[in-house]
Write a structure and sequence with these properties.
The complex is a heterotetramer, with two copies of chain A (about 450 residues) and two copies of chain B (about 170 residues). Chain A is an alpha+beta fold and about 450 residues long. Chain A folds into three domains: about 100 residues, 3-Layer(aba) Sandwich (Rossmann fold), CATH 3.40.50.20; about 70 residues, Dna Ligase, domain 1 (2-Layer Sandwich); about 250 residues, ATP-grasp fold, B domain (D-amino Acid Aminotransferase, Chain A, domain 1, 2-Layer Sandwich). Helix content of chain A is about 35%, strand content about 25%. Chain A is globular. Chain A starts with a strand and ends with a helix. The relative contact order of chain A is 0.11. Chain B has about 170 residues and is mostly beta strands. Chain B has two domains: about 80 residues, no CATH class; about 80 residues, OB fold (Dihydrolipoamide Acetyltransferase, E2P), CATH 2.40.50. In chain B, strands 1, 2, 3, 4, 5, 7, 10 and 12 form an eight-stranded mixed beta sheet that branches. Chain B has a four-stranded antiparallel beta sheet with strand order 9-8-6-11, with no helix packed on it. In chain B, a hairpin with a 2-residue loop joins strand 8 and strand 9. The relative contact order of chain B is 0.19. The chains are: A alpha+beta (about 450), B mainly beta (about 170). Chains in contact: A-B, A-C, C-D. At the A-C interface, helix 1, strand 19 and helix 12 of A face helix 1, strand 19 and helix 12 of C.
């Protein structure tokens, strides 16, 4: 195991990593920007190095600064947390070159998987199910009809040069295909000066489901169940849970096997997440791989009992996985709610400020990961995540009731500071969420319904 | 204090200043402790320095801090009457890394204690991963103290030099 | 389920019960003494009734006051917590008579099990193993020798009228019996004016191990594993854990079966604990039954996933047990440390006072049950329990390291306030505790070693 | 104020006091608002009441609270010069339970507003589980207000009566 780990991150995940280190007897080095000088992890860690001013570009994403801090503090490994440099192949490479162990996949793996289309190609080659579509532009109606026969309906015709919802057309039935194809090409030419289009399966409503995996340096990999992250707002996850409601265990198992196969195919090492879209028939399609620990990792920890950050450290230190697939027996259900310093009433704008009151939920089967405390000043510079409330229950209903209880205990007050607790409580009360039939459009729907009131 | 700038022969000014400088330095090194005010005048050239009465103690994290006890050396630039402001400031590390006083090993340091600096003048280097980040003075002043030894590691924003600013009036 | 439950208790357990109620959708009524007017549960509960002044006799143990508070608040059931009236058969009877459901065993069961010798007789009849001994005084050396042949050595001769360590003599071998018998009788006569003595097996070193059970109103009962509570000071438990270290799973299973058999034999209803002493050969002996939820119940919750307080409520509401014995699969290890407002350096005297700083541990697999918070005034009137820190780990070593980490995060400060965190950390570091070979004498030994330093 | 106690015929004292009492009561009911001081004297018998200038507002939880706005009725016991202290106090529930003003349903209440009470005098009952806990005055005073209706539930220490204490000098 390492002697001293530098944590190249801030906020709750920095504290989370420091706790894992401490339990493993590893010394910790915090790095911090001038904005975070009085942060919890700075006090918690055995050492702390100021690496730059507030802007992440000059501090938490500043490779030379972090490498120098590692050297200055005598660290032998670097944990990048999530965000910032966590999936940067250059950073991983520099760490390796400068003699620090990067706690994550090798630089080469990060580079290969960082290119989304490359990652899809590799996963397709590894046999993972992909959303049906035409990888190359379609040139004629005949070609489109041939492709559509494979893709099925509904499908979507997209301009190669399109984006932002323009230059695309959903096709419900084969009868509509020829007209839609011609019109979309015409639109595309008019809009972008490029008439090329391609076809893809259209998922009217989908769930975002992801598989957590762990892989060691010796070709062993295991999956640790699935998380549903369908409660999103503009691709920002608000609520995550495991197991995913409505997805049969057999499907989760298949996804897990696919993720492990995919991980082994690219020599993945460390903790990783395979993201899938799941359609209403519980068919799933590979989307991308997140090569880091994720914000929502605690729900997996709650049901499996596996300390994922400790496993990251062990894997990076060269230990073989001590977990076999049959050791991983998820129990019950876990939910995470992200409490952000944002104002849902004003389009979720961040509301930095000083916390005068900060009383976190507690009690049985409740975990709160946070770096905040009374007196903490939320800086305007970083993401507004204030706390993660995670609960466990023997079943989803119990977990939902427990989460409602826990959110009810959360007291956050400060001049100008707003938070998402009430909004999260509203999600929990929503009948679609309670019954688990919600899809990625739930948050938008809730807002549309609010406005209609 | 208002400064009166008189046209003078540059060579004579230089000589006079040298003398004034030596005299002031001698005064300072012989005086028991740091004086509150030093004024040296020679013809048209005069140098006046005044120090605040400060409590001893830690430098604060503010960029401008109370003057340390180390005695600055008096001198003056060309043809001006100057005062040292009542505050000293610090030049801080622009980056975490290793601090070097000279452009390369064995070379002459960029600055030494007592040297005058002007805005933009390089006073040191912080090296981070072979990246040589120059450290520059941001105002007219005199290096009062060099706070970090050559080759030592520094954090971002760590004070490296204490500078007594000179107000060019 | 009940509509409204009155919580006839205070401190952390009152909050614990209130949380369980809230998760079940049950309204809560807190009762409080004038000392506890600003307590957390008073703010947490849906209603709060002031029932008396500080002294428990006139408030938390005042039956008419609590019954009137229940009537006044419209409660339909009363949860007694632990301590105070929780095992008082009169209280249970009054509740029943006044139309409130007592959340605990029926009054008749409490009465029968409240008499310790009666309880032992019943459990002996139910076939539970008892510490060998002579129930009646022994009158002659011949009788003593006959009894000793059954009891085995070492045994202890105790004066019937003795107590506090006086009037007793340990006998190691049969050869010493006759002399010891004569001498103890003489001592007893001299000391107490009563020469009667009896014989009992002497356990030189024992573990305190207890079995948690749940029994419903329909003759169903399950056991939920064992807790070791050997880290005690003057019978006050300081650290509890599950599973008990050094006790084979097969022995725990046998104890569990015995406890279930004992519970069914006396028509037990609710949550209960069967206390045993376990000797060095892992033979176990019934001691007594605690007819209430216990302080240390969270360790069982952590490994079983069962919310014991919720189960108490369901059982009292007349629901049949939803858990079958095969559903209860303990996972990993859990430890609880009791953080008291006491000064270990001064004989653990209570140190009431106002908390200026109170920062509780958090993070993965850590639970803190507490009623305290910054600004809380610890009253001098009640027991000094300030918080329970409970951790879970996949194995005991991980749990110990996690507990050490968690205790290290605990910050408790206030004028005159001391706490047991450092002492608990010392217990955790002790080699005997770490290897699990400690017995009930560990705390005394630690103090003796401190003085020898 | 010092009290001077003179020997008097008890019957005459009673008559005089009655008159004084009536007069004082009339004065109080006719006065616009609560006066600051009322003094009624008749020969040897005099009654003087003085109220503090108080802010209106909630009664505090302290046992002795600022005087409420309700006007007390002036009277005085036998053969003494009295003052109402500047504070009023409360008689509080000795127990959680049901408050009763009378010993049994339909009976005459123990006390009514305006009545004088003395230490140990029963003023009500709190019933908790058929246990009848007497409520007693703990000092000489006058019942200013009865705060809880007959048959209502009360918490421990809940104020039941406001009492204007009389200092018997």
């Amino acid at each position: 195991m390492f002697r001293r780990v530098l944590i190249a991150n801030r906020g709750e995940i920095a504290l989370r990593v420091a706790r894992a280190c401490r339990e493993l007897g590893v010394e910790t080095v915090a790095v911090y920007s001038t904005e975070d000088a009085d942060s919890a992890v700075v006090r918690y860690a055995d050492q702390a190095v100021r690496i730059g001013p507030g802007p992440a570009r000059r501090s938490y994403s500043n490779i030379p600064a972090i490498i120098e801090a590692a050297r200055l503090s005598g660290a032998d490994a670097i944990h990048p947390g999530y965000g910032f440099l966590s999936e940067d192949p250059d950073f991983a490479e520099v760490c390796e070159a400068e003699g620090f162990v990067f706690i994550g996949p090798p630089a080469s793996v990060l580079a290969r998987l960082g290119d989304k289309s490359d990652a899809r190609a590799q996963m397709a080659a590894a046999g993972l199910p992909m959303l049906p579509g035409t990888p190359e532009p379609v040139e004629s109606v005949e070609e489109a009809e041939a492709a559509a026969a494979n893709i099925g309906f509904p499908l979507i015709i997209k301009a190669v040069a399109g984006g932002g919802g323009r230059g695309m057309r959903i096709v419900e039935t084969p009868e509509d295909l020829a007209d839609a194809f011609a019109q979309t090409r015409a639109d595309a030419l008019a809009l972008f000066g490029d008439g090329r289009v391609y076809l893809e399966r259209y998922l009217r409503s989908a769930r975002h489901v992801e598989i957590q995996i762990l892989a060691d340096q010796y070709g062993n990999a295991v999956s640790l169940g699935a998380r549903d992250c369908s409660v999103q707002r503009r691709r920002q996850k608000l609520v995550e849970e495991t197991p995913p409601p409505g997805v049969p265990a057999s499907v989760v198992e298949e996804m897990g096997k696919d993720a492990v196969r995919g991980a082994l195919a690219v020599d993945y090492v460390g903790a990783g997440t395979f993201e899938f879209l799941v359609d209403d028939e519980n068919r799933y399609y590979f989307m991308e791989i997140n090569c880091r620990i994720q914000v929502e990792h605690p729900v997996t920890e709650m049901v499996t009992g596996v300390d994922l950050v400790a496993e990251q450290l062990r894997i990076a230190a060269g230990e073989p996985l001590s977990l076999r697939q049959e050791d991983i027996v998820p129990r019950g259900a876990a939910i995470e709610c992200r409490v952000n310093a944002e104002d849902p009433a004003r389009g979720f704008i961040p509301t930095p400020g000083r916390l005068e009151r900060f009383h976190t939920p507690a009690g049985p089967f409740v975990r709160v990961d946070t770096h905040a405390e009374p007196g903490y000043r939320i800086p305007p510079t970083y993401d507004p995540l204030l706390a993660k409330v995670i609960v466990w229950g023997p079943d989803r209903d119990t977990a939902i009731r427990r989460m409602a209880r826990a959110l009810g205990e959360f007291q956050i007050e400060g001049p100008g500071v707003r938070n998402t607790v009430d909004f999260l409580s509203r999600v929990l009360r929503d009948e679609r969420f309670r019954t688990g039939v919600h899809r990625t459009n739930l948050v938008d729907t809730l807002f549309a319904e609010s406005e209609a009131d | 204090m208002t400064a009166v700038i008189e046209p003078m022969d540059p060579g004579r000014v230089d000589q006079t200043l040298e003398a004034v400088h030596r005299h002031a330095t001698r005064l300072l090194t012989q005086a028991p402790g740091l004086p509150r005010r030093v004024r040296v005048r020679a013809g048209d050239v005069s140098v006046e320095l005044e120090w605040p009465v400060v409590e001893s103690g830690q430098a604060t994290t503010a960029t401008t801090v109370a003057a340390p006890v180390a005695a600055p050396v008096a001198s003056g630039p060309l043809a001006t009457e100057e005062t040292v402001s009542e505050q000293v400031s610090q030049i801080r590390a622009p980056m975490v890394g290793v601090f070097y006083r000279a452009p390369e090993p064995g070379a002459k340091p960029f600055v030494s204690e007592g040297d005058l600096v002007e805005p933009g003048q390089q006073v040191g280097i912080v090296e981070a991963m072979k990246l040589m980040v120059p450290i520059e003075a941001d105002q007219h002043g005199r290096i009062v103290e060099i706070l970090v030894a050559n080759g030592e590691s520094v954090e971002y924003d760590q004070p490296l030099f204490t500078v007594a600013p000179l107000e060019v009036e």
